[in-house]
Amino acid sequence: MGKKDPRVDAYIEKSQPFARPILKYIRKAVHAGCPGVEETLKWSVPHFDYKGVMCGMAAFKEHIRFGFWKAQLLGLPAAADGEGMSQFGVVKSLDDLPPEQELIALVKKAAELNEQGVKAPRARSAPKPPLKMPAPFADALKKNRKASAAFEAFPPSHKREYIEWITDAKQDATRDRRIAAAIQWIAAGKSRNWKYM
To answer: Max CA-CA distance within the chain?
Structure first.
């Protein structure tokens, strides 16, 4: 038997008046499609779990987001705006969601996928292109063999952090101070954010 979470009731009641019937509609369809579903809050918004995360919903000032964790496996389009929980786009009314029986069918399929232990496909991001080394930074590295050797040994992410930090300087004086600090830290084998490690 499924489990309702009183925090979800409170979330719905605190939502904007337009959002309440939409959130209740989604909740009802999820419970109808998967009687064993358990409600919870993740990232401060309602989620529905059944042998793993299944779907979630979130209310904003003027719209709702609702989506399935394994949307691609359900034949739903990928979120166009990069948002994970938005296979149905910006939901402003019940008309923006599928009819109840379609939604229940999607929930049933999502529950079956979790029941079978099917994992969501991981999106692979394209590698970031290498950044252009600022000439003053390259010159400073050439003058310090220890820093140069350490910088070459760094993984690409550490190199990127230093280059971005230096190129983000708006004034030459700031850039020069950052280069001086970077050379010191790099020579000591420290990553850009060594203070936070």
So the answer is: 70
